[in-house]
């Protein structure tokens, strides 16, 4: 639901921005054509035509490149945006009665606030306001355009507030990511405790049974079977503990490889098969997405072992164009369910992990068994 709401909000924002930009372009072109010095192919009209083309080209180029801080085009983007503002001011000096060109300057200044340090953005806006004031006093009959100056100040305040809001959002996201890491580590610690508690207690039961059989000259075949079960449990617990510790260190294997290991571990610990099917072209996932897939598969298969003893499991991993889907199903319990001590992370933890990366988790009955379905974007 959260992912769907976010998608609707993005689409609504895109529609609003498109409508506003279309309206601004139409209004600008009409005002330019109706001005006293419209664009032409000679004289002053030619200069106005060239300035408009250069100004728009600088703005579009500056807006499209260098938006990310680590982009190698960051400096070029700043230069282009400053060029758009400069050309806009020059246009105002040639035709001071037409202030429409400053729409471009305002957009460029807004973008500059997100590409420059805050003080540099304020300085660029202040220099623009000063230039507009001087040109207005020199070339306009009525002096500086007070309304235009107020508009620039409003853009400056709005851009500064928006930039600080973006910085605050980024800080919030970093804090949420840090909290998610701490929560994941806490979960891993609890899971290691559960793994060891379950594995060791089960081993003790089997070894104690083998000891009693041997001490009473019982069936050695049964005693050997109990010892082998205890050995398998010890091996399975050790593998799970190693995997949990690897996750704690940030060593996340490829999902398809990790799921294959989980399937082998499921068979070794239960004696029941776990079929794995991978569809689509495998590709590298982000650490968060890969972790969500692997941990969900592990938790789902752990739940099958705990709550559906005797069940067979089936895992499907689908690589799609816009994401990855994981589906874990089981055939239902065929043996009595024995309640184990210790609480696992469970469905709530899987769902929370999926929502942190805009994914979705759907769970519910599937015939006699249970189904866990995860989808995460890439």
Mean pLDDT equals 78
- End-to-end distance: 18 Å
Helix percent band? 55-70%
Shape: rod-shaped
Using only C-alpha atoms, the radius of gyration works out to 33 Å
Q: How many extended strands?
A: 5
In the predicted model, the low-confidence regions spanning at least 5 consecutive residues are 340-345
Which structural class best describes the helix and strand composition?
A: alpha+beta
Task: Tally the helices.
Answer: 10
Order of helices and strands: HHHHHHHHEHEEHEE
Strand content: 5-15%
The largest pleated sheet is described as: 5 strands, mixed
The strand line-up of the biggest sheet is 1-2-3-5-4
Fold and architecture overview:
- This protein is of the alpha+beta class and 378 residues long.
- Helix 3 packs parallel to helix 5, helix 5 (118-139) runs antiparallel to helix 6 and helix 6 runs antiparallel to helix 7 (220-248).
- The longest helix is centred in the middle third of the chain and has 70 residues, at 146-215.
- Strand 1, helix 9 and strand 2 form a beta-alpha-beta unit.
- It has a five-stranded mixed sheet, covered by helices on one side.
- It has helices spanning 2-34, 43-64, 74-94, 102-113, 118-139, 146-215, 220-248, 255-270, 287-307, 346-356; strands at 274-279, 313-319, 323-330, 360-366, 369-377.
